[in-house]
Amino acid sequence: MISERKQRLCYVAGDYLSSNVAWFAYNCVRYLLGTVEGHYASLEQFLLAPMVLVGQLVFPLMMMAVYCLSGYYNKVFRKSRLQEVATTFWSAVINTLLIFFVALINDVIKERGTDYEMLLLLLSLLFFVIYAVRAIITSRTSHKIKSRQWSFNTLIIGRGTTAVAFVNKLVNQRYSLGYNVKGFVSIPGESDAKDVSLPCYTMDEVAEVCHNEQIEELIVVPTRHEDSQLLATINRLFILDLPIKMTPDRSNVLLSQVRISDMYGDPLVDISGSNMSESGKNVKRCIDMLVSAILLVVLLPFFGIIAALIKLDSKGPVFYTQERMGYHKNPFRIIKFRSMRDNAEQDNTPQLTSENDPRITRVGQFMRKYRIDELPQFWNVLVGEMSIVGPRPERKFFVDQIVERVPSYALLYQVRPGITSLGMVKYGYAKNVDEMVERLSYDLLYLENMSLINDLKIMVYTIKTVLTGRGM
Quick one: 441 and 313 in the same domain? Predict the structure, then answer.
């Protein structure tokens, strides 16, 4: 398998070195043009000045932070050249403005026009130098993929004549698209093609095959099908937590998440993954960390009061932890203020709360009404296990029941679970699995429409719910 980590390190190292070169070149030019503050006998003296040396260390690191936020390092293979140019340009614009307001605003400028010229020079250097290195790495990667030196283990879902023809076309193309097809999987109700040279599997064997063959992508290529049969097949794939693509046809109108990928060759529709941009995902994570850190500090005295009330009201610990299923199906311990009596689930059988649940303490009733018991989860957010806004995490006991009824629930694993969610503000707490399934429609709707604006709206609704005491 190709090492994604090594490829990412190549981009990071290339960006860091090129950022240093661009900033060094800019310092040389601005000195030669006489647009620096202070008097220096030579270029060498200027470049060795303490503030210039500090800038040579700090500003490339600042640029790297912007590159990370841009989402450029999230996906390191099969990059779109146009998207790469756009991302590099806007990163250069942001870095230019940041550097200007931090370091260059006090430079000695003889004429106002020179000010704009120097900004344009900095922007040009940050764009062209960084993009040149990125283009070299991307071109090298593209060459290795097209020449079949690098490929990604892929499973074709479908074994009919259309699926076989699709694979034959992939194999016979002059340039590879990077798909290393490891076999076919029969779609129930579909006629299988004869004389297939690659291994063939059933839907019941998919999970085991994906594990054994280290499958990285799934491509659904139906021949003739009923829409309900195809959707049932796709639903069974969601639990694998792998990228799922599909050849475009009339059935795609049934799939709400439509993103075109692989424009070179036959375009494929991406039917897994959220619609949020890579930069949006990174900014969302930074906001989560910043807000959580601030609130954990600001709310510390309030936490102390709540802890005292919990201890006075009933025996047991202040905090309560419980295993939930999180990002990419990784289990984690969610933290809450204890709102129930200690050992509320003595028989170890998971139970959902209900109205007037006798296990809830007096202080617990108050906390749950205003959702105060959820506040310690900002720690889960800070360490990366949760997000402020995202689908609520559930216990594996209930997840298994939900997935059995609605397999598309597995799509929620591609994002971090949240303290609050669209399902929580529109539906509220679920008292049984049936209500969990009903609430799921809101969480899937959120996944398809993820954005920072929608996150802000959900947080506003949550605050309103908390202040009005409609948490139960």
Answer: yes
